[in-house]
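Board notes, transcribed. Complex of a protein with 2-acetamido-2-deoxy-beta-D-glucopyranose.
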Amino acid sequence: MSLLALFSLFALTASSLAQTNTTFTLRSWTEAYALANATVAQLTLAEKIGLVTGVGQFNSRCVGNVSPVPRLGIPGLCLNDGPAGVRPTKGVSGFPPGIAAASTFSRRLMRARGVALAEEFRGKGINVHLGPAMDLMRNPKAGRGWESFGADPYLNGEGAFETITGIQSVGVMACAKHFIANNQEHWRYGLIADVDDRTLHEMYYYPFLRSIEANVSSVMCSYNQFNGTSACHNANLIGPNGLLRRDGFQGFVVSDWGATHDSASDNANAGLDMEQPGDDIFIGGGVFNGFLGIGSLTSDVNSGSVPPARLDQMVARILAAWYRLGQDSGYPAVNFNAQHSDGSGSLNLNVSVRSDAHTALSREIAAASAVLLKNTAGAPGLPLNNAALKRVAIIGQDALIPNLNCGDSNQCNDGTVTIGWGSGSNSLLFTVPPITALNQTFTGAGAVVTTSLTNDLTAGPKAAQGQDVAIVFVNAMSGELGAYQIVDGNEGDRNDLELWFSGSTLVQNVAAVCKNTIVVVHSVGPVHMPWTTNPNITAIVYAGAPGEQTGPGLVDVLLGTVNPSGRIPFSIADDETSYGTTIVTDPGFPLGFPVVNYTEKLLVDYRYMDANNITPRFEFGFGLSYTTFAYSDLAISSSDTSQMISFTVKNNGTVAGTEIPQLYLGYPHSAGEPPKVLRGFDDILLGPGASQQVVMTLAQREMSIWDTPTQSWVRPSGTFSVFVGASSRDIRLNGSF
Ligand SMILES: *[C@@H]1O[C@H](CO)[C@@H](O)[C@H](O)[C@H]1NC(C)=O
Ligand SMILES: *[C@@H]1O[C@H](CO)[C@@H](O)[C@H](O)[C@H]1NC(C)=O
Ligand SMILES: *[C@@H]1O[C@H](CO)[C@@H](O)[C@H](O)[C@H]1NC(C)=O
Ligand SMILES: *[C@@H]1O[C@H](CO)[C@@H](O)[C@H](O)[C@H]1NC(C)=O
Ligand SMILES: *[C@@H]1O[C@H](CO)[C@@H](O)[C@H](O)[C@H]1NC(C)=O
Ligand SMILES: *[C@@H]1O[C@H](CO)[C@@H](O)[C@H](O)[C@H]1NC(C)=O
Ligand SMILES: *[C@@H]1O[C@H](CO)[C@@H](O)[C@H](O)[C@H]1NC(C)=O
Ligand SMILES: *[C@@H]1O[C@H](CO)[C@@H](O)[C@H](O)[C@H]1NC(C)=O
Ligand SMILES: *[C@@H]1O[C@H](CO)[C@@H](O)[C@H](O)[C@H]1NC(C)=O
């Protein structure tokens, strides 16, 4: 059966408004495979090899390309970064990254972000969006943690499902990454992740399982070794009887760029379907050969060490994913050139794919992801009464626009943090920094704005003296290692949890002179905030990594146009030891790559803190509002295969607001699970006095553990506890079944 999906996208070109046609025919996998098989039968060996092999990192029009088969109308498929927007090119939106989507705890916004992202990828002619990332934030310092959906597997799974569903609804292929146990930057090209089978399934694999359920087109195998074998050469992961295929994955497996560390036949026979980028790269401790070259895969097929049927299967999987989303008809051609990110050269057609709707969505997510960590009752504090403000100080380098000519991957951190650095970063060209949005808002209402837009520890408090309010901006950043820079001594992973550039001292110096100090934190993850109880600090907004519309989104929250509803998708504790994991920075012995032993098993973040009676400064799922909510009427009804949990949320305050009710499950003791695990969330918008019944359903798998002996999800017998509340520790209703 063919379903006709109709979508339309309005895209701005450099000079005029153009409409990109996003009509496509969605096919079933069976229909797509029938077409793919028929095409494979017509291909020569060279054409087949060309479809599974990157054309070379430095010749590629996109971040990755394979060769076209013009005689059959098959384009050179374009695979491109990044998970938060098209890069490196111009005329695109800088969407908020995955961690911001997670902070909204809103499936609606997660999916809308996927749709908008993919409209821009499609508009640029990109076949495969290299995202979403779903690597659990196992350690808070992990360099690329912000690309994914935080520290909980269920939240990552829902983020992955919604994002992929959104992306593929516009006919763009998504790529679930990085498979698997890709949780730190140090030694990533070959570290040996030692993860037991149960932990693997319940924590790191779970988001990939949800991706398969979203019919994801492709999965990217990671740089590291898993269980002693490179992920891209690991049949237990990607082979015919490996995890992905066991669970019904029908698309193709593509290597991360340079993640093929073994021979062409090793990789192909293990289950790798496409190699990228197609040439030798040498970065930080390894030569990568992939299918190197095209010649070696060809000779492996000719010699029989890769069976011809296996090569056919590789090609069929790639083409089936392409046919399934109807990319064989009416798909835009590539109109940019990643080799010239400045837009130069004749291959850059300078097509802008931005739209007002995308800008509005970025702003909405920026505001919805902001987490109000502290607010004093009544004035001062938030929201600000703009009409009454006469004198405002804005302090800190983080309020400023960053250097927009800082390589292609945001490696400077000399202004506001909207996203981390590396291949998951995006174009910053249209960033509206806090200073611009705030200054316009306050001066527009007649206030006098004083600034100190550096982290100078004397000038900051001087600017704050005698002001009605001082708004201090501080930040911390991390990113991808590899070919990217080491930023301020941080090799991808952060060195520590401190705010950068003496941020904490700046906050404390300002608070020492101003009784109405409001702190805005832009960060890729948890930071140490020893000053949160200082009474002169009347409000703290953890604005995270909000993307290009950072300034307008923040104004919405500070003025109360948007009532904050963001929740932290990780816990904020004072030190790394509270999290129970470390980043392994020492090399392995005698040389080469270290073992990273996932001995904490299921106890990551709040699960570890709950199990060890550690009280974080702010717990997973925490976030305040300008109104208050009351919970009541918990009801639990059971069937053989599911549990229905219902309850009522009432806005018992005076302004409209969105509550994020969360459902945590406590397993029977014998199950060996953490004290509680997230199993549901919702975003409920309520006017003052209004209430709504919320229903959450637990499917059988969500009440199961992964049982290694039987290799299956098994629901333990015994009594389960139900915790419903406003965070992982603010439990308002208790029940059991
Ligand atoms: C495609 O070809 C493969 C390999 O021969 C076969 O297993 C599969 O059933 C075929 N699919 C369809 C839909 O024809
Ligand atoms: C690790 O490898 C061993 C030996 O091949 C295998 O028995 C075991 O199932 C693997 N573990 C996982 C989690 O894949
Ligand atoms: C995935 O594809 C199958 C078969 O084509 C379909 O039944 C199912 O609804 C799809 N799932 C989603 C989430 O789109
Ligand atoms: C959009 O593309 C579809 C499929 O290629 C085609 O049938 C349709 O006529 C196109 N619509 C417009 C408005 O160009
Ligand atoms: C695109 O813009 C760049 C930079 O302004 C310019 O050098 C180039 O010629 C433009 N390309 C086209 C096709 O207009
Ligand atoms: C703030 O806005 C005023 C009025 O437009 C302008 O004069 C001033 O330069 C702005 N300050 C900053 C730091 O942008
Ligand atoms: C709060 O600010 C006032 C100045 O307005 C200062 O005298 C006092 O010491 C500050 N308190 C703290 C705890 O910093
Ligand atoms: C990892 O830790 C477990 C549990 O402590 C231990 O059994 C295993 O040998 C360790 N593996 C490595 C490679 O150190
Ligand atoms: C709203 O409900 C909460 C939780 O029951 C309660 O603590 C708070 O006092 C209530 N607020 C008002 C204004 O009634």
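The domain at 627-736 is CATH 2.60.40.10 (Immunoglobulin-like). Confidence is low (pLDDT under 50) at residues 1-18, 282-287.
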